[in-house]
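Treating backbone geometry as a discrete language has practical consequences that deserve illustration. The sequence in question and its structure tokens are set out directly beneath this paragraph.
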Amino acid sequence: PPAPLRLRSPPRGSAVLRPVLLAGVPLAAWLTVLTPADGALVAIAGGVALGIGALARRRRRRRRAQAVAGRVAECCEALGAELRAGQPPGHALRHAVRVWPPLRPVAECFDLGGDVPAALRALAGHPGAEDLRLLAGAWSIAHRTGHGLAGAVERCAAALRADRATRLVVAGELASARSTARLVAGLPLLALAMGAGSGADPFGFLLRSPAGLVCLAAGCAVGLAGLWWLEAIADGVEAGA
């Protein structure tokens, strides 16, 4: 008898490709009926949206890193307090895990007799957790020299506390610069509104004429580049603080 037919399941990529085709075909058909000016406007709007999205993602990453840095400092303070109270390192690490749960692999590494400084340095690779390298160094030095671990961790926590205070001051100073840059980036819109109110037609020039579209694209590109440049400078200053 002939072998029964077996229905093959579609490849996994088709599940992703199908909605792309369903959305892309009408979009492509709509783009074909656009005038060159409308197509240029769509391209400019897409570029602006991508630039704003990239700036927003960078801002979210910076805020997450700052939050992680604060939790790391709290974790070091809790660890130092437990050690100063006479608790063994394993108990102190488990208490620090309650303050900052991502520290759990380090506590498990200690329970298994592993290399705690190496585990701390591996965890320091995450954004915002770079200060754990200082804790790893203090832990390593305390074990090599035989000095008390509690004192080393407390000095590390004090250093992180002072460093965090400096970073907060720097962040406060940079906040005004960021606000000024965003205000300056929005001034062209105010100038366009004032020009339209005075009887001119700046929007018609920018949106309908080839020279205006070039000016619009160049202005948006320069504005986004300026904001990105300012964020890069601010990130460098905060990293060096």
Observations:
- The chain has nine helices and no strands.
